[in-house]
Design goal:
By secondary structure, this protein is α+β, with helices and mostly antiparallel strands. The chain contains eight helices and 17 strands. Bound molecules: 1,6-di-O-phosphono-beta-D-fructofuranose and magnesium ion (2 copies).
């Protein structure tokens, strides 16, 4: 029987890699694990308790909030407030960032940006959903309230990022900039256990993920790439398979393990993009790159984008290196033709 490595064991072991480590990031990662278990409990019995359906309010994105969006948001905020490592948060479900000013948190070293419940359109139909998180060291002085600048940092400056996938099993996948590791929740012992050590994304794959319902509103370069994916060419394993769950975390996770590309481009109906840079695209871009993949907004590396707004959106191309590069070359090719 192989040794079980729990998330706590693993994080403590890895903490030794950092001479200056204070244990605060270790505590923060275990706070995230606790909140994930609480949300997992609610997700698993969603149909039995009154947490399906809409809450009856609209968030700053103009989306109808689902009850589980708010339940997850509150569970994670409670966990971030509890430890003292976090001085402020920003989330998809809150109009503005929240600075924690209690004496326990105001000296906190980190800020966290998160999408408490990703894949909201799939909550009521029992399809995989998730949570996405992004962690930065604060810029502002400890002992003072967190400020907007603490949250508008480039993705490349993340100290850690990851996601939780509530699927047939519940997994937590994260990176602190030293590779990507995946943990599966063992409900019988209530622990996240190392199940996917040192995840490496294949340089290429046979899966492309895009909402083809938007194709006629996309850039010609995107159409060209989708056409490329569908062409018959045994040598390159084409046609590829189209797979689209409609939960970013689930689509991203599948492609991370199997090889594939996820694309949500800017479109006529989403001219700035659909997905949110700070708590959807940046954390997953961090994971993609740490696993050997790539992530762009169609023009530049996602992690190099300098944010200007908390809820800004961007185009998103992420996954296997060769496939993202190919999609970029189609965009450039079409752009060159047009100009
Ligand atoms: O229905 P569409 O336009 O394809 O959008 C699906 C995308 O929207 C999202 O649901 C947006 O995230 P939220 O559910 O957190 O709002 C992604 O998970 C998913 O990839
Ligand atoms: Mg989301
Ligand atoms: Mg969400």
């Amino acid at each position: 029987m192989s040794k079980i490595t729990t998330l706590n064991d693993f994080v403590l072991e890895r903490q030794k890699d950092f001479a200056y480590a204070t244990g605060e990031l270790t505590n923060l990662l275990s706070d995230i694990a606790v909140a994930s278990k609480i949300v997992n409990r609610d997700v698993n019995r969603a149909g039995l308790v009154d947490i399906l359906g809409a809450k009856g309010e609209t968030n700053i994105q103009g989306e109808e909030q689902q009850k589980l969006d708010v339940i997850a948001d509150e569970a994670f905020i409670r966990a971030f407030k509890s430890g003292g490592e976090v001085c402020g948060i920003a989330s998809e479900e809150n109009d503005d960032f929240v600075a924690f000013e209690d004496e326990n948190s105001i000296n906190g070293k980190y800020v966290v940006l998160f999408d408490p419940l990703d894949g909201s359109s799939n909550i009521d139909v029992n399809v995989s959903i998730g949570t996405i998180f992004s962690i930065y060291r604060r810029i502002s002085e400890p002992g003072t309230p967190a400020v907007l600048e603490d949250f508008l940092q480039k993705g490349a400056d993340q100290v850690a990022a990851g996601y939780v996938l509530f699927g047939s099993s519940t997994m937590l996948v994260y990176s602190t900039g030293n590779g990507v590791n995946g943990f599966t929740l063992d409900p019988s012992i209530g622990e996240f256990c190392l199940s996917h050590p040192n995840i490496k994304s294949p340089d290429t794959g046979r899966i492309y993920s895009i909402n083809e319902g938007n194709l006629d509103r996309c850039d010609p370069g995107v159409k060209e790439y989708v056409q490329y994916c569908r062409e018959d060419d045994a040598a390159t394993g084409r046609p590829y398979s189209g797979r689209y769950i409609g939960s970013l975390v689930a689509d991203f996770h599948r492609n991370l393990l199997k090889g594939g590309v996820y694309i949500y481009p800017t479109t006529n109906n989403w001219p700035e993009g659909r997905l949110r840079l700070l708590y959807e695209c940046n954390p997953l871009a961090f994971i993609a790159e740490q696993a050997g993949g790539l992530s762009t907004d169609g023009h530049q590396r996602t992690l190099d984008i300098v944010p200007t707004e908390l809820h800004q959106r961007c185009g998103y191309y992420a996954g296997s290196k060769d496939m993202v590069e190919k999609s970029m070359s189609c965009l450039k090719h079409k752009e060159a033709k047009i100009n």
